[in-house]
Amino acid sequence: MKFFNKYFLPGLVFQSVVIGGGYATGRELVEFFLPAGPVGGLLGMLVAAIIWSITMALCFEVARISKSYDYRRFFKQLLGPGWVLFEIAFFALIILILSVIGSASGNLVAEQLGVSQLWGIVGLMLAIGLLVFHGSAIIEKFLAGWSFVLYLGYFVFVIWCFCEFGEKIVSNFQNQQMNDSNTGWLLGGVRYAGYNLATIPAVLFCIRHINTRKEAITAGILAGPLAMIPAVLFFVVMIGFYPGIGEQPVPIHFILTQLDAVIFPIIFQIILFGTFIETGTAMIHSINERVAHFLQEKNRIYPDWIRSATAVGILIIAIFLASNIGLIGLIAAGYGTLTWVFIALIIVPLITVGLWKIIKLDKAS
Q1: Angle at the Cα of 88 (from 207 to 345), degrees rounded to 5?
Q2: How does DSSP assign 226-248, residue by residue?
Q3: Would you say 188 and 30 are in contact if contact means Cβ atoms under 8 Å apart?
Q4: Mean pLDDT in the chain?
């Protein structure tokens, strides 16, 4: 278990946050990768995964040597007084991501059960509130356990889709190769990697399991592929419906309706609902941990019931935004705007200040 917590848990928590925030629905993949075409989209995903691995390796090592397990302490190490800028941008991202998963949860429950979207939203709130009430240990177990359920679900989904639409998928890849129009993949990969790295605060709480540089670097390198593999599998399936899939507000719903099955689409969408819970829980837990550590420094206690109340309050704000803007508008406008902010506040400082701190520690040792 210790081996798993050191090397795989951080990457699986990162994956849990990334997937529910957008690519579980397929909409993120449409916005960032589909414009580059089938092959170009895969190249963009490779770029994003490499950036994630390098950046997360540096991040985990800086967190380990500075014992920064909440984002306030971590970004004080990295940005100095400028850490406040990250907090402002991060809170904006949390509202954006929770808006996306709130909207997607409501749509999913409404389409499957024929009830009001409110039921899906309320269910999401209750699940997240319950998890954050019980704290880090339960959250770690849920995020890691549901990640394995997710991988199994995606494996079955991809195999089934290849059996049904394999010829279309292969044909569309071949046609795109012949057309040679795979452009924009590098920028798409950089942009996608940039804003998703803003979810680093949601991963920091589990870095406490890491004790050595080898463990930190290895866990960071593994985080990239662990988070991207389900996206690659999903993207390959989407190519079977290229380019029309780009017009679908929620591509995963469209593809599931094309399968000649009754039970599996229901099971798979339950799995997707679990990913929304994962993402919301990890993001809100990062805020709770930031507040808890701050109060701990003041010799004060952060009650568990306030953790749950914080979750519900933030979700209500996010859902209000989602109902007024919509899923496509949130992803297309919000994520694009924040991407460059987080590249400036995370990637650039990590490869400069972060690397310098690591080297400085080596010399001091």
Answers
A1: 60
A2: HHHHHHHHHHHHHGGGTTGGGG-
A3: no
A4: 82
**Angle formed at CA 253 by CA 250 and CA 256, multiple of 5 degrees:** 150
Report whether 11 contacts 153 (CB < 8 A).
Answer: no
Question: Quick check: bond before 265 cis, omega within 30?
Answer: no
pLDDT value, residue 90: 82
**Amino acid (1-letter code) at residue 345:** L
As a whole number of angstroms, the longest Cα–Cα distance in the chain is 66
Cα–Cα distance between 3 and 211 in angstroms, integer? 11
Other CB atoms closer than 10 Å to residue 353's CB: what's the count?
15
Residue 330 and residue 322 in contact, taking contact as beta carbons nearer than 8 Å: yes
Q: What is the pLDDT of residues 208-264, one digit of tens each?
A: 889 999 999 999 999 999 999 989 999 999 999 988 888 887 788 888 888 877 788
Q: What is the DSSP string of 165-191?
A: HHHHHHHHHHHHHHHT---SHHHHHHH
CA distances from 52 to 18, 95, 212, 360 (A): 11, 22, 20, 24
DSSP string, 296-314: HHTT----HHHHHHHHHHH
Position 263, amino acid: I
What global pTM score does this model have? 0.81
Measure the CA angle with vertex 193, ends 189 and 197; round to 5°.
180
Contacts of 142 (CB under 8 A, 6+ apart): 131, 277, 278, 281
Domains and CATH numbers, the chain: 2-364 (1.20.1740.10)
The helix/strand/coil state of 70 is coil
Give the model confidence (pLDDT) of 314-345 as tens digits. 777 777 766 665 555 555 555 666 778 888 88
For tokens 């394999």, name the residue: 166
